[in-house]
Amino acid sequence: MGSVLEVRIAKRTGFCYGVREAIDKAKESAAAGKATHTLGQVVHNEGVISQLQQIGVRSVDTLDDVDHGAAVVIRAHGVKPEVFDRAEARGLEVIDGTCTWVIQEQRQLEELVEEGYTIVLLGTPKHPEVVGLLGFAPDAIVVDEEEDWDRIPRRKRMALITQSTQPPWKFEKLAAFMVSRAHELRIMNTVCPVTIRRQEDTLETAREVDLMVVVGGRHSANTKELTRLCGIVGTPAMQIENARDLVDPTPF
To answer: Do residues 36 and 87 both lie within one domain?
Structure first.
């Protein structure tokens, strides 16, 4: 085991503004004495989930798990429009924590549907954001990895939009691929700018150090992508969720 001479922290770290706002709304609701639930985990972070549980905020998988009259927080990923209708019908107080960037995506999808485009959505099929977006464009063609792309049809008018946390390089590559698939191609770059900046900062820091420790949820797509980027520049990386995961001193 060597000795660590210096620890550097990437320029911009922590949760994005959308996640922070959803967490704050859940805390404010609980502080006001309301029975508060989040529809799904508000963030892939055990520490934050534990803190919310301690103040009475409970994560539920469906609206059926929320008591009548209680408050339910919609997380930053957003949901299908019908979820709001169902919540209202059940007498629930809906606190909308949908990220403003995702709301913009939802509106753009509605416009594309209205204008008659064949829509391709780059995203992970079962990701909550993608599930929610499909509520605004049910016929959108969802593709993820490159091996999926050959099933994109050839159409006269097509539009490309993306899950906000997809890697920018993948979106750009798919956009180039789709040029030959349509006479008219409308490209809506909806990659979240915070995602882009986090990835840029990770690459910059990885080039300057001998080892990267990437802290984030085990199941977080964002965290996994940051870890992958470290490998691209040849810097070893450890993905952990908290300090307890640093059990092996060998890399240091």
So the answer is: yes
Residues contacting residue 199 through CB under 8 Å, at least 6 positions apart = 167, 168, 225, 226, 229
Distance between CA atoms of residues 210 and 205, nearest Å: 10
Are 105 and 186 in the same domain? yes
Mean pLDDT of 94-115: 97
Kindly report the average pLDDT of the chain as a whole number: 92
Cα angle vertex 203, ends 198, 207, to 5°? 145
pTM, 2 dp: 0.87
Residue 66 and residue 57 in contact, taking contact as beta carbons nearer than 8 Å: no
What is the CATH classification number for the domain harbouring 10? 3.40.1010.20
Q: Are residues 22 and 78 in the same domain?
A: yes
Do residues 202 and 237 share a domain?
Answer: yes
Domain count, the chain: 3
Query: What mean pLDDT do residues 228-248 have?
Result: 88
Domain span including residue 250: 1-14+192-252
What does the pLDDT look like over 71-93, one tens digit per residue?
999 999 999 999 999 999 999 99
Sorted by sequence, the CB contacts under 8 Å of residue 215 that are 6+ apart come out as 223, 240, 241, 242
Q: Where in the sequence numbering do the catalytic residues fall?
A: 129
